[in-house]
Structure formats: C-alpha cells, structure tokens
Specification:
The protein contains 14 helices and 22 strands. By secondary structure, it is an alpha/beta fold. The protein folds into 3 domains: 96 residues, 3-Layer(aba) Sandwich (Rossmann fold); 200 residues, Mur-like, catalytic domain (UDP-N-acetylmuramoyl-L-alanine:D-glutamate ligase); 129 residues, Mur ligase, C-terminal domain (Protein-Tyrosine Phosphatase, Chain A), CATH 3.90.190.20. α5 crosses α8. The relative contact order is 0.09.
C-alpha cells in the first residue's frame, strides 16, 4: 500500500507544535486535511484557522472518521483509547504516527538525524541556518521555533532531510523511540544522559535505545559523535563496523569577554558569535561536521554561523537591561548545570537561578539524585514546583528535602507563581542577573511583563 500518495488525511491531536505544522505543510502540498484535538492554543489555533483546517469544535468524535479518509496520523498526545483511533481501526483505515509518516514521505531523501539527550534542537537549528545561508536546499523537522523559519517542519521535493531525533516514545500505539523510525543515513549523537525516567526506568534501558539507533546505521552510513561521552564510546566499541564511517568531535576553541564570545577559523581569525557557553561550542562543533558532509566549506560555515541565534527558550535573553534575564529550556541535571555555568562564565556578576521541576522524570526520587551539586555556580537558587505537580512526587517533598537533593544551602522552594513573582521583585536580588529554566511555563507566570 502506497501511503505516501494518500490524499485524504485526518490528523488526531492536530493542535501540537509539530502536528499542526505537519497538517499545514500537507495542506499546502495539496492534501485534503481534517483534524481534531481536545485543546488548541495559539499560535497553533490561529495558524490552523488561517489555513481553513481548524476543527469546528474541540474534542474527539467517531463522526470525524468518515469513510473517505485514506490515512490517520496521530501524535504522542493522543490517548490509546481515543474514540477516533478505535473507529479508524474498525474501518481498517491505516494509522501512522507522525515519525512513521515522516519516514515514508522522506524515503527518497538523504536523511540526517540529530540525536542525544541534550543539544539536539540547537544543533539541528545551527545546521538549518548554515544550509539556508549557503543556499543548499533541504527539508527539516525540528521541535522548537527557529529563527528564520516559519514552521517546525518542511516537506517538499528537496533531496536532503534534517531531522531532530527525539528518543521519546512514538505514539500510544507504538512504544518505540521516535528516532528509530527515521532510517537515517547519517546520525549525530551529542551525548547520552538518562532522561524520560517515566518510560525508561533505568540508565541501562535508556542507553539501550541509543545502541539500537547506532546499530540501525546502514553500510556506507556515518556516525558523528561527541568523543568525550563515555556511554557513546562504550556502545561504539561494542559495535565495530568497518563499513560505517565514525567522525568524532570535541568543542570549538573559543574565548570570551564581558560582551562577546569568539571562535577561530582555520587561519586563527576570530569569529564573533551571537551565542555563548561551553556546551554551545560543543553543539557548534557537531553542526560543523554535518554541514561539511553536506557540501559547506569550512570558511563558509564560519561566516554563516556568526549570524546564528539560538532557538526560542534556548538561553534566550528576555530582558537586556543592566541586569539581564535569561530564559532556557533546561530540563535535565547536566543541562541545568551547563546553562548556569555558561551564564556565569559570560556574565560573572551575581546570578539568581530559578529552576522548575516539571518533567515526568523529576517526580521520582531515584532520578532526583542526579541533581546533586548542579546549582553550585549559582549565587542563589529557587526550585519551583507548581502545586499541581507537587501531587505527582512519589513521596512528600519540602524545602529541606530539596536542599538535600541538590546539596545546596542557598536555595528556597516556591510552589505558587504569585509568591514567585514577589520573590523575583525582592530588592535583595535587584542587582542579580536572573536565569529562568524549565521545559514548562512556571504555572503560567509571564516573566516578560
């Protein structure tokens, strides 16, 4: 069955950041698109409405699965007992997760997958920026709003596809990690750090997913990897295939002052960047190898990367006054520590860090042990846990417990956004830079007001 040419497509969970972009892209490519979701926020709502594919009413219904539908695409947000999934099965309508569909419609493209526990969105966006600057045509899939690109996804007849490869589960019907669906030709792995504790109950199980990813690399394929990651090195030592090219990378050499960060080209000429932080120098080194493999000369890479800006909520400066306010997506122990260190290195004045424990992994005390000493370079820290999320912890949690977990005395626990607002406006911290980190939204608190 040729699913690529199925024209009448229904998208369940159409309001998601990637799902709505996929629906819009397919509509623009001539497909007949319908969709459903139980809740749709802006900007998804406005963008779907503009394209004429916003559901007339919220919710799921058997009536949405009419007989002329050729294909149903679903995302991870969809529940396994969703009435539309059940109805689609009854009518023998093919059901695909969006990663499976991406794999099918990109089967004739050269597929590059960017993977790793952290940095994959940044590396993917770096590659996209450089390819665009050098007028190399490509399609892409990325998980965040990216400067210079209107959508999270683009699918056309371009010969290259750059894919951010998430290790999280594909759909409620398929517990396989997304990145195992894309059948890569080139894969970049930027590091392996235990994450998604809710579905990968041990480090061993988590690392096993990356082992499967490496083993999927075809003959003639390439594995580009951060050479200082012991977990990657161990897997590669066990999977020694002379038919696969291994390309290790480290970090770009850099220097900085109170204002700017610089890297050096092959002639040792300084290149001023719009980004900073040692972890981003690692990201940049990985992106450079991918771009070189796709035909970008080293000089052209350095010229292009000088204008690159980080994606939304990746060390984003939301207030650039005397005391800066940064917003970052940090959601793991190593990312938390790396982000604090990056800000302190570039801006050495006192730093107030606010970190929201929000991801599913963060609610288990086995995983929380990994946060020990991650706040050491912050002058004072706030751990924010919404009142709703407090109920999700495997046992009672309070401020003393949090201090022990992080091994940090200069720390308070806040569980209410109104109290958080009052604390951030406290005159005692008026002279501090502020770093706000979360994969959530601090219970809806708007820091940009």
């Amino acid at each position: 069955m040729n699913l690529k040419n199925k024209k009448n497509i229904h998208v369940i969970s159409i309001g998601g950041s990637v799902m709505h972009d996929l629906a819009i892209n397919l509509k623009k490519n001539g497909y007949n698109i319908t969709g459903s979701d139980d809740i749709i926020y802006d900007p998804s709502k406005t963008r779907l409405e503009k394209q004429g594919i916003l559901p007339k009413k919220l919710g799921y219904s058997k009536a949405n699965i009419y007989n002329d539908i050729d294909l149903v695409i679903t995302g991870m947000h969809t529940k396994k007992n969703n009435v539309e999934l059940i109805e689609s099965k009854k009518k023998n309508i093919p059901i695909l997760s969006y990663p499976e569909y991406i794999s099918i419609i990109s089967e004739n493209k050269h597929r590059i997958v960017i993977a790793g526990s952290h940095g994959k969105t940044t590396i993917t966006s770096m590659i996209m920026h450089v390819l665009k600057e050098n007028k190399i045509k490509f399609d892409y899939l990325i998980g965040a709003k990216t400067n210079g690109f209107k959508s999270n996804i683009s699918i056309s007849d371009n010969p290259i596809m750059i894919i951010e490869g998430d290790e999280y589960l594909t759909s409620p019907l398929d517990k396989t990690p997304k990145f195992l669906k894309y059948n890569h030709h080139i894969v970049l792995i930027n590091g392996i750090e235990w994450d998604h504790f809710n579905v990968f109950k041990s480090q061993k199980i988590y690392k096993e997913q990356f082992k499967k990813l490496i083993q999927m690399t075809p003959k003639g394929g390439e594995i580009i990897y951060y050479k200082n990651d012991k977990s990657i090195a161990k897997i590669l030592n066990e999977h020694n295939d002379e038919n696969i090219t291994l390309r290790p990378y480290d970090s770009e050499k850099f220097e900085h002052n109170k204002i700017n960060t610089y890297i050096f080209n092959q002639n040792n000429k300084k290149i001023k960047l719009k980004i900073f932080g040692k972890h981003n120098m690692q990201n940049l080194a990985g992106a450079k190898i991918i771009c070189e493999q796709l035909g970008v000369k080293e000089d052209d890479f350095y010229k292009s990367i000088s204008s690159y800006e980080l994606p939304h909520r990746r060390l984003q400066i939301i207030s650039d006054k005397i005391n800066k306010i940064f917003r970052d997506f940090a959601h793991s122990p190593s990312k938390l520590e790396a982000t604090i260190n990056a800000v302190k290195l570039q801006y050495p004045k006192k730093l107030l860090s606010v970190y929201e424990l929000h991801s599913s992994s963060s609610f288990d005390f086995t995983f929380l042990k990994n946060y020990k000493n991650t706040l050491q370079n912050s002058d004072f820290s706030v751990i924010f846990i919404s009142e709703n999320n407090l109920k999700k912890f495997s046992r009672k949690i309070d401020e003393n417990t949090i201090k022990k977990i992080f091994n940090e005395k200069n720390l308070i626990l806040i569980t209410n956004k109104i109290i958080l607002e009052k604390f951030l406006n406290n005159s005692d911290y008026k002279s501090y830079n502020k770093l706000l980190m979360s994969s959530g939204n601090f219970d809806g608190y708007n820091f940009e007001n």
